[in-house]
Amino acid sequence: MSKIGSMNSQQLKPILIGAIFSALMAGCMVGPDYVKPTSPVAPAYKELDSSQSGDGWKLAEPNEAGMDTQWWRVYHDPVLDELMTNIAINNQNVIAAEAQYRQATALLTQARAGLFPTLTGNAGGTRGTASNNGNTSSSVVQSSNANIGASWIPDIWGQVRRNVEAGGANAQASAAQIAAITLSTQATLAQTYFALRIADMQTQMYDFTIDAYQKSLTISQNQYDAGIVTQLDVAQAQTLLESTKALAIDLKLTRAQLEHALAVLVGQTPSSFSLPAQVNAIDPQTGLVVSPVTKLVASLPDVPIGIPSQLLERRPDIASAERQMAAANAKIGVATAAFFPTLTISAAGGFQGVELPNLISMPLRYWSWGPALAQPLFDGGLRVGALRQADAAYDQNVATYRQTVLSAFQNVEDNLVALRLLQSESKAQASAVKYAQAAVRISLNQYKSGIVNYLNVSTAQATELSNERTLMSLLNRQISAHVGLITSLGGGWDASLLANK
Description:
Helix 6 packs antiparallel against helix 10. The protein is α+β, with helices and mostly antiparallel strands and 501 residues long. 58% of the residues lie in helices and 11% in strands. The protein is elongated.
């Protein structure tokens, strides 16, 4: 409803009462206020008790490595440091997450706009002909107008504020998601990089092994030429040599694919990216490859574990799930507010006349203003369905949040137990390699002396190679578990880094 022209005090009373009522009700917000649901949190990590069982596994103090956002620097590898700097700039998944965050902040700006009045302005003019009471002649008719209008829907029931609340929580969730994707990409890059360096070690191990097998084949061939052994020995030596060459070729495929994966992670095409092989030393006594990775694994920096409840603040994926839960809770309020009437206050004023030059004059002015109340009487269950959907969406987000927390605890426990047991397994495997190498030396000397046939030698050599490959694999698993532990603890990220929206 609206009033046009002048209004007396009696006519103004309903409008003033409505304005006062809306101002009083502006502090009301329907729907549940957000309370963070509980989640399953253990008082301590299971593996902390196991670490005290005499396995020689030391826990880090809070001021030790792994609590910085640039956590990869604990490995002191300049090549890895340089690769990491490219993730935030060139990795397309991270760029996509950042764009999603900007979308979320833009939606928040749109939601906040609902708190303010809308102001519009327009001007126009028409010119045409009109007949004069059926006569053949007609007259020219023209009109012009210019006006400004304003409308405002007071947020009586908190629908707009709940939308702003949801938008702010979604923006924070998006910001946490950037951190989660970045952290996951950093972990993948570090694990891929170290796997490539292990492949470089294996390549040199194969080169050393192939050289040794070539010498064994020469010995077998010489003894065959001398009539000491049969051609079976030569065939066995040749088989072992060629199968090892095949393994070396397959390793080249693995390394190439790891290099391609690194290229994509840093935002480059595989054809434009190259990482030179790392040249490592060979221990002349053990025949094992000695590289920076072996030294690193031998003295992996300790990681501060903390208590399980701290994980809720240190993992960006948990923070993102919690903020999405808060946004879903606010949406319940939005759906609830739809059941209440909507008050619209509008006003307009301007000038309207025939002649454009004299349009802006007091006699041609007009204005109108007044409130309007609207309430849907029947919608076929539309609002009920929307409220039920909002309730179900919130329950889904609660379940997702709790599952994210459970998965986070699993990640930490998995990597804790992996580090503890892989350390013991590597020691046992290193001893196995040592004894396998001794068996090769003994069997080769016995073969040269004619005590055994070449089957004993080839069996010992194959066992040695298998144990050396297993030891290399354990090195890779240890460094991967260490990276996994740091990142599963949040990699130095904290929920306090989220901006208040």
